[in-house]
């Protein structure tokens, strides 16, 4: 009887093993597409019998997961890189698209300057003036649309950061629960599957490094910062610096989490926000520079009514915000003094004061340093007005063009406000009381192309700003010498000049008030005048378009901005954003391939091969049937034994 019992016991242990095997295969096939699931197999050993006796079947089988820590880590790294690249591709493409269609500021400004040039050729055309004014409105609408598009892209990136942090914290909480479960049931396959799935999901938000524990639980870190240990998860928290850059910290001690733009969707979101801020800052600066250039050109000319041109565009003034930690009493304000010197791709600036070095600033975008010198202090195209007394170490955030793209508007309300005329038109002869000019000159006087300059020629006769707008007269006392007076009078002389071998110049100072302050309207003079010859300068009228022509050349004037011409600055912003978007799209494609490769590598080790599972299932079924036959044979033997007895 002992032998029969032993045979039955041995066969029953086999039935239990093969039944568990069939169940394991079934579980594998059912979860073949489940994220984080690793193929399971049975690990059974022979149950050793009494000495000199045959074995007694199999011991309780242990379920073993097919896993590779290295392959799993490679997949997590690929997930992190691909999630970052995909996020960048979407965000940077949105930034690039911000400058298309209604936000195409390049096309709008180009059309504006083209129509200003047309006005210069036909300054008496009211219709053409209205076209220029309409173009100005289109320019402002394009800036506003582009700014709104960038703001929308930034809002999406901020939302992605917020929801991503929430999702990452949920996954850390889930991993903490799994860790707790593994302390109670070490190496539980189901918990380990859930753990791998959660780690894979977490790796899409930020890089994940794991340190396995003896019971299968994990310590999780990113870049050296602990996210999960035996005490539980370290919650992620976002905040924003004064410069507008978001940061992430972990735990109640607010340990910084350092992420690059390639570190998961959270790192990409931070990078996308920084890219959006930089794009908007550049767009704002372009709006301020464009408006400043046109407004200065306006002030350099006259309207059809003879008035000095007023601002055509309005933009918000520079802002200066004091740090809350300042201890001094200084109040700082700023104004754009030279728009050509404003960094197109820079700002805002961190302005600081030290007793040793005075005022200095650092461009927070490029890191370039500037010293503030002069009275008033100037830096990067801005003039500072400082009242009160600063303390050592006081800091201020200086933005030269806050919300300029969104806030730009057309200040002129009438087409007659466009200053197309030159401030003066030269005519040989003497001005008569009826406004005509009589030319009785015996010699020749030739005038060249007038210009506007901040530094008159060395041989120029400089006319004070107090005479700007009055009729002026050059009185030649010889072929090389002349005086300047109010027209109709030869005395008193306002200024005097000479004609050298290269001729001479007359420079009329613009009024101190207005955008043209500090500039000079300069006219070159050549020829062989005779003593007593005259040249009259009268304010330009509606038939003059010289100032409009000068305004039109702003689009292609070298060194108009820190990026070159205005056109180059506009094109540079657009093409730069387009290049960044294209690079991100290519990177997203490449990292997607890396994810596929890493997934295949892990599947080779830990994935479910349905063909292999079918073979294994057949083997278990046949073994199960064989064990059942053993029991059947033993039963027959037992029945025969009973009958014989």
TrEMBL record:
Stored InterPro entries: Flg_bb/hook_C_dom (IPR010930), FlgK (IPR002371), FlgK_helical (IPR053927)
Domain Flagellar hook-associated protein FlgK helical: 100-313
UniProt KW keywords: Bacterial flagellum, Cell projection, Cilium, Flagellum, Secreted
SUPFAM superfamilies in alphabetical order: Phase 1 flagellin (SSF64518)
A GO cellular component entry from the record: extracellular region
Source organism: Acidocella aromatica
Domain of life: Bacteria
Pfam families for this protein: Flg_bbr_C (PF06429), FlgK_D1 (PF22638)
Coiled-coil segments: none
PANTHER family to which the protein is assigned, alphabetical: FLAGELLAR HOOK PROTEIN, FLAGELLAR HOOK-ASSOCIATED PROTEIN 1
GO BP annotations, alphabetical order: bacterial-type flagellum assembly
Localization per Swiss-Prot or TrEMBL: Bacterial flagellum; Secreted
Protein family: Belongs to the flagella basal body rod proteins family.
GO MF: structural molecule activity
Name of the protein in its database record: Flagellar hook-associated protein 1
Domain Flagellar basal-body/hook protein C-terminal: 606-643
Principal location class: other
């Amino acid at each position: 009887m002992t032998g029969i019992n032993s045979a039955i016991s041995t066969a029953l242990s086999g039935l239990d093993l093969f039944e568990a095997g069939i169940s394991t295969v079934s579980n594998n096939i059912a979860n073949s597409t489940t994220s984080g699931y690793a193929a399971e197999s049975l690990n059974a050993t022979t149950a050793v019998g009494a000495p000199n006796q045959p074995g007694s079947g199999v011991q309780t089988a242990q379920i073993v997961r097919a896993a590779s820590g290295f392959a799993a880590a490679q997949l997590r790294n690929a997930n992190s890189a691909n999630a970052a690249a995909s996020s960048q591709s979407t965000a940077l493409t949105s930034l690039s698209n911000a400058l298309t269609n209604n936000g195409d500021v390049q096309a709008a400004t180009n059309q504006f300057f083209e129509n200003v040039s047309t006005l210069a050729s036909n300054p008496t055309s009211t219709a053409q003036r209205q076209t220029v004014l309409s173009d100005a409105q289109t320019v402002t609408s394009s800036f506003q649309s582009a700014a709104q598009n960038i703001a929308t892209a930034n809002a999406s990136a901020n939302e992605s950061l917020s929801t991503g942090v929430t999702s990452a914290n949920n996954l850390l909480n889930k991993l903490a629960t799994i860790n707790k479960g593994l302390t109670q049931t070490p190496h539980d396959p189901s918990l380990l599957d859930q753990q791998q799935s959660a780690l894979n999901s977490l790796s899409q938000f930020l890089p994940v490094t794991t340190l396995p524990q003896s019971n299968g639980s994990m310590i999780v870190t990113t870049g050296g910062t602990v996210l999960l240990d035996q005490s539980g998860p370290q919650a992620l928290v976002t905040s924003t610096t004064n410069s507008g850059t978001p940061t992430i910290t972990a735990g109640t001690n607010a340990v910084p989490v350092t992420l690059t733009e390639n570190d998961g969707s959270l790192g990409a979101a931070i990078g996308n926000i920084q890219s959006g801020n930089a794009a908007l800052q550049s767009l704002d600066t372009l709006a301020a520079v464009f408006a400043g250039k046109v407004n200065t050109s306006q002030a350099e000319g006259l309207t059809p009514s003879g008035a000095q041109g007023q601002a055509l565009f309005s933009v918000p003034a520079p802002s200066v915000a004091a740090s809350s930690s300042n201890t001094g009493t200084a109040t700082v304000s700023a104004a754009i003094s030279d728009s050509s010197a404003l960094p197109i791709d820079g700002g805002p600036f961190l302005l600081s004061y030290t007793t040793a070095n005075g005022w200095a600033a650092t461009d927070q975008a490029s890191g370039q340093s500037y010293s503030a010198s002069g009275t008033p202090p100037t830096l990067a195209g801005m003039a500072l007005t400082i009242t009160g007394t600063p303390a050592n170490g006081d800091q201020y955030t200086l933005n030269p063009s806050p919300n300029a793209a969104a806030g730009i508007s057309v200040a002129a309300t009438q087409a007659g406000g466009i200053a197309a005329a030159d401030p003066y038109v030269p005519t040989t002869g003497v001005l008569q009381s009826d406004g005509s000019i009589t030319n009785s000159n015996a010699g020749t006087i030739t005038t060249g192309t007038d210009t506007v300059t901040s530094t008159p020629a060395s041989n120029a006769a400089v006319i004070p700003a107090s005479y700007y707008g009055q009729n002026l007269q050059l009185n030649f006392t010889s072929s090389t010498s002349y005086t300047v007076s109010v027209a109709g009078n030869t005395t008193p002389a306002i200024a005097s000049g000479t004609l050298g071998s290269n001729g001479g110049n007359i420079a009329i100072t613009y009024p101190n008030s207005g955008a043209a302050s500090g500039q000079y309207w300069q006219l070159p003079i050549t020829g062989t005048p005779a003593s007593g010859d005259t040249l009259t300068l009268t304010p330009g009228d509606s038939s003059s378009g010289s100032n409009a022509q000068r305004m039109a050349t702003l689009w292609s004037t070298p060194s108009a901005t820190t990026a070159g011409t205005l056109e180059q600055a506009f094109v540079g912003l657009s093409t730069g954003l387009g290049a960044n978007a294209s690079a991100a799209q290519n990177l997203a494609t490449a990292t997607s391939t890396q994810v596929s490769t890493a997934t295949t590598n892990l599947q080779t080790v830990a994935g479910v091969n349905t063909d292999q599972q079918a073979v294994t299932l057949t083997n278990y079924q046949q073994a199960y049937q064989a064990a059942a036959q053993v029991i059947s044979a033993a039963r027959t033997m037992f029945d025969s034994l009973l009958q014989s007895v």
